[in-house]
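writing this on my phone so excuse typos. first protein, seq and then structure
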Amino acid sequence: MEDFFLDISYKNKTVRFKVVNPEAPLSTLVDNLRHAIGEDGRLIFDFPSIDQTGAPLDYFFGKEDPQVHEIRVMRPRIGKEDQTLADYNVHNGDLVYLMPDPIPG
């Protein structure tokens, strides 16, 4: 199986990220990204786990809808089903956005 890469963009920073298991649930991929360390030994993306009010922040991936040029949130679960990159038609080399959950809680 060939390597699978995503370009992940967060706050004006885009990083090419190797995805070890593209079939993993999206929630697992976000968790892995939260702890990912760059070659300099620091976190690749330093994203807060709580907002200004102290409420926990969840993060999702988003992908641009080419028809309307809007970022569509890729929900990690729909009903009881974990969603994967394939469920959102994300392919090797695609650009995805890391974004905080707009609705806390």
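second protein below, same order as before
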Amino acid sequence: MSPLPNNPTFQFRVRYAECTAHGDLAMAGYINFFSEAAAQALSEHDVDIRMMTAREGALREAGYDVEIQVSPTYDDEVAVEVRLHALDDRGFTLGFGLRAARGGKPLARGTIRYDARSSGPDGACRLPLDLHGLLQEWLV
């Protein structure tokens, strides 16, 4: 998992409140890291995913998938790589790789699916054209 120009990487530190009673990163922590990395990656392209997924926004988070290989623990530094995993007219999926910041050991991987909410008089669920175009550039 090497950072490529189209696959930005962001670093985080596991906080105590994100851990289970056993000291491992809780499932919600993975989703939070993935969501934060998605927001940062898209903001570099002037896309505010938080606004787009707000109650009246054009998108909704439709699903999560997390596969844990080795769980990080309190105070570990982790790096999250973001990539565009899939794109269609109705939505897109971002893929994530979580690894140890030091040494690069793979820890987990996952995805978040974003679907378009219905819009327009016909109630169609389509990505805004400007967002679709921006995401297509990410694939190149």
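The chain has a mean pLDDT of 89. thats all i got for now
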